[in-house]
Amino acid sequence: MTERVSSPQAGTADRGALAALLLGAVLVGASPIFVRLSELGPMATAFYRPFLAIPVLALWMAADRRNDPATRRPVSRGDFLRLLLAGAFFAGDLAFWHLSILHTSVANATLFANFAPIFVTLAAWLLFAHRVTRLYLAGMALALAGAALLAGGSLVDQPGNLLGDFFGIVTAMFLASYILAISRLRAGFSAATTMTWSSIGTAAVLLPVAWIMGEDLIAVTPYGWAMLVGLALLSHAMGQGLIAYALAHLRPGFSSVGLLLEPVAAAILAWIILFEAVTPWQAAGGAVILWGIYLARRGSR
Questions:
Q1: Rg of the chain's alpha carbons, rounded to an integer?
Q2: What φ, ψ does residue 217 adopt, rounded to 5°?
Q3: pLDDT at 35
Q4: Residue 69: which domain range?
């Protein structure tokens, strides 16, 4: 990756992108709560996450183009295919993550989904010749160790969670593919355009999956719809939108490490809303994750 020129403007942009990444991670960290509280099955819930966000994202894209008419639009078949493929990767991420949430704890589901930094770092090095520093690798390893502490040792104490944990690892592979795809797309398209078209791709994949699995597609109460709308607007439109913005300014490897803030937010919210206990080891794990993110940030500059 080309080194950035150090300047006050670049530093301000990087700080803004870092803030967007971390806030986006917190908002996405709330998504397991909405999934747990949803009246629908995991695939139907996953489908509504991008589908209900599309109108909001389309308005954002239209406003973006009015403010900057020079904003690049997808015009070729290749443009649309790349945008929709990113959405397909995210569909795999959501499908397996939602299955994981139903078969293991919220903290574990988010933890294994966020093993993505390993896959992102390897792929960025092998495919795009991105260089990594020892400090970045140390920060990534520390953050992953903190995530393991946060998981609370379910592989030993709760062997029934193994299937959900496996689904979480598959999620990480799809999430890594999505992060790399969005990072490359953001070199040419705005965050609004990238999010709108990739969300269409995500919804297009998840709708037939939910139908094939025989899940109900209509929530029966206002509460059920409120959970779906909250998931779509807070976790997808706002959370993923902020992450997509940040990926234009931050290295994908570090961004994937920064997203390890998600299990911290998920565990705290699960403690508050779902009454899932947070042990001292899990609290220590959250602190270690934050320290690892800090070191990875320093090592990725």
A1: 18
A2: -110, 0
A3: 85
A4: 32-130+157-250
